[in-house]
Write a structure and sequence with these properties.
Elements lengths: L7 H6 L2 H24 L8 H23 L2 H12 L1 H36 L26 H5 L6 H6 L17 H11 L3 H10 L22 H20 L3 H13 L15 H23 L5 H12 L4 H21 L17 H20 L3
Length: about 375
């Protein structure tokens, strides 16, 4: 019988050498084309192009060794068997990949469990749920008082901080320029007296014993944080008012402003549990306390304070414990970061590189187990 002529597709795909050569060339060409499209795309957060590139790269990584083995006479028959049993070979490959992911996830869970036990033995808690503050009665909560949540929680400029921005003809406390004359002091007090209703509202709210900000405490990225801008502008305004009252020899009124500055720490102490204290809150507390002490020192230089005010200021100073919230923050921040890393999906790790989008979740857990003990070392520095 005459030999049947081989078809066009047989000439292209019929032998291992041709098949793997075509797969190698087409996957490499497709990778460059899709990469060029991805580089000029406006939607870099869309992972579809990256998935296509990854698939083409995987085909290239598999096809290139197949091409090399097909060129070797001793292994050519094996490559022919692979092509004839391509479905079976693909199933084996998928099984190997699935086992790899399962094994890495198991390793990550085991490493994180061991890390938790070791940290608990050192007196540290990695379970973020232990730092979530329980609800408190609304009538006992500072942030349930009128305007408190709106003014003092979140980022950026709030309504209060916008109101308190000093006009250009008045120096801002801490800017290096100060008010030195009684005329300027009266002018500043006249301007800032317009905010007395806001000051009274804040003073009444600070009498409540608890200070739980409303928000989502499920993980570190969503924990509500104090509004640094609002607290800073309020503290600066009150400091300048206390200084002006000192110039006008009104120590009792200066003490009222100082008492309100001192009370701002209650917005940051997360009472009644003291959890969680974020590092941002601890830093704001240090900044406000530094400003508070600076005004006291300025008043001593100006002979503003009398014995009655000095006794009150001494009592207030005895209540300042700057390192307590800092130490608490060093304990809560690693737990918050661990919860965030543990719960966030790998596809959201775009900033860490596209490879992390397809990495086993166990790699994230292993990273937590390796890095977290280092961050708790800062908390160990506190007695």
């Amino acid at each position: 019988m005459e030999e049947q002529p081989k078809s066009f597709w047989w000439k292209i795909w019929g032998s291992p050498r041709r098949t793997f050569a075509w797969l190698t060339a087409l996957s490499l060409l497709g990778w460059f084309i899709v990469g060029f499209i991805d580089a000029h795309s406006r939607h870099h957060e869309d992972s579809r192009l990256f998935c296509i590139m990854f698939l083409l790269a995987a085909v290239f990584v598999l096809a290139l060794p197949g091409l090399v083995l097909s060129l070797i006479p001793r292994t050519r028959r094996g490559m022919s068997w692979v092509l004839r049993r391509w479905f079976f070979s693909a199933a084996i490959l998928v099984t190997i990949v699935a086992l790899f992911y399962a094994e890495e996830d198991w390793r990550g869970q085991r490493a994180l469990a061991r890390c938790r036990r070791e940290l608990q033995a050192r007196g540290f808690e990695l379970n973020w749920d232990k730092f979530i503050p329980p609800p408190v009665p609304d009538d006992q909560n500072v942030f349930k008082a009128p305007k408190m949540q709106e003014w003092f929680v979140g980022r950026g400029t709030s309504e209060l901080s916008g109101l308190l921005r000093s006009p250009t003809n008045f120096p801002v406390w801490g800017s290096g320029k100060t008010i030195d004359t009684e005329t300027d002091a009266r002018a500043y007090l006249e301007w800032s007296d317009h905010f007395q209703p806001q000051f009274d509202l804040i003073s009444d709210a600070l009498k409540r014993p608890d200070s739980r900000m409303e928000g989502n405490y499920s993980q570190g990225l969503t924990v509500p944080i104090p509004n640094f801008v609002a607290i800073r502008e309020l503290a600066r305004t009150l400091a300048q008012r206390a200084h002006c009252h000192g110039i006008l020899h009104e120590p009792d009124k200066a003490l009222e402003d100082m008492t309100l500055i001192h009370g701002l720490s209650h917005l940051l102490d997360a009472q009644p549990t003291g959890k969680p204290v974020t590092l941002v809150a601890a830093m704001i507390n240090v900044a406000v306390s530094g400003l508070y002490v600076e005004v006291i020192g300025k008043g001593i230089q100006m002979h503003t304070w009398q014995d009655a005010q000095l006794l009150d200021l001494e009592k207030q100073l005895s209540e300042v414990h700057l390192m307590t919230p800092v130490a608490a923050a060093f304990k809560s921040e690693p737990a918050a970061d661990a919860r965030t890393m543990e719960t966030i999906s790998t596809k959201d790790f775009a900033s860490m590189g596209n490879l992390m989008r397809i990495a086993p979740h166990g790699w994230i857990l292993q990273n937590i187990a390796n890095e977290t003990p280092f961050f708790f070392r800062m908390a160990e520095a506190f007695d």
